[in-house]
Amino acid sequence: MDFQPHLMDTCGGKLYVFYHSACEGKGVYMKFYDGFSWSDYLKVSSTHGSESNFYCWGDTLILMYYGWGDSVIYRATSYDGGLTWINEVFADRPLYKEDEPYVYKIGDTVYYTYIYEIEGSKIRVKREYPSGLDSLILNFSLPFALHNGKLIHLDTLRFISATGWNGNGVFLIKIHPGGYEILELIDTSYYSADIEVFGDSVFVLGSEPGFVRLCYSYNRGETFLCGDVAAVSGIVSNVELVLTPHGKFAIWSDSLTKFSIKIYRSLDNENWQPYDSIYSSGNEKFPVAIWNNGLNILWSSDRNGKYEVYFAILGINGVDEKIGCVDEGRFYNVLGRRVDENYRGIVFEVKCKSVKKHIRR
């Protein structure tokens, strides 16, 4: 299974999604939604990729991905809104297996972060200016393998979330003009974390055995308080934190036997309530979520015997702001094909026919 988080964003009034196929016609594909309909799928690369991340501004789109088979990090760039792409090798140190790239733009500077030594607790940060490129190596004190998280900024501060393999914790890396600091927020983890900022507050969502947990700081990451969002069942595939006008949403997929997606909401930082869930007879995994006139969720499912990618918008309905239903006009599989819905209260099950392009069998 090679569909990865961080493959959805909005630019120029369009919603872009990216996905990978390891089947016939393997490669990296994208689609966009212009508010009325989905585009045809466009092929970005013929390299089967994974561990991808995407960022865009105006008509400029950058996709970073790890190439399966050749074990290098690629950068794909489009200057025309995704119609044409330039693919290039961005990092290639095969002895160290660089992995998990992330891209983020602050002002005129584009930041790239990725695992620099997959078994050596090092993350590399490259900064691309209009006039050149520089880099910084972040060293963890203990030699364990890492998962790279996303970078986000608050004024002159840069924050990176990272998790250790084999339960080694959720970490916050705080880069400031004088250097950087590494703070362990959760002492064990299920390999996934998400980070957001609002005003002077920093929020980190992570998971540990038995719980999904939110850590938050009101003083620009100087000190943190942590509390449990919910108990979880078995393994957590990944977590997503979305800040919205209607509260904070925590989204993840967990499983003892079959994966299902859980959605929780809080109007503060401490009191979390179940909001909705996505389940079927198969595995519902790897949710990606952003706020775009509703809670937009992208995820993958093998309910039809093969992995396919699904998209839905969960609307806010009524004074109490509970979900009434998924917006029936905007619920699609990744090819833009409408999907029928069967509702069970605020919990829904989705059924659809097979699609031509899908995730690895």
% residues in beta strands: over 45%
Mean pLDDT: 77
- Termini distance? 8 Å
Q: What characterizes the major β-sheet? A: 6 strands, mixed
Query: Which parts are unreliable, with pLDDT below 50 for 5 consecutive residues or more?
Result: 1-5, 317-361
Q: How many separate helices?
A: 0
Question: Order of strands in the sheet with the most strands?
Answer: 21-22-23-24-30-29
What is the strand tally? 30
In angstroms, what is the radius of gyration?
19 Å
Structural class by sheet pairing and helices: mainly beta
Amount of helix: under 10%
Order of helices and strands: EEEEEEEEEEEEEEEEEEEEEEEEEEEEEE
Shape: globular
Overview of the molecule:
This protein has no helices and 30 strands. It is mainly beta and 361 residues long. The strands form 7 sheets. A 6-stranded mixed beta sheet has the order 21-22-23-24-30-29, with no helix packed on it. A 4-stranded antiparallel beta sheet has the order 1-2-3-4, with no helix packed on it. A 4-stranded antiparallel beta sheet has the order 5-6-7-8, with no helix packed on it. The protein starts with 7 loop residues before the first strand and ends in a 10-residue tail after the last strand.
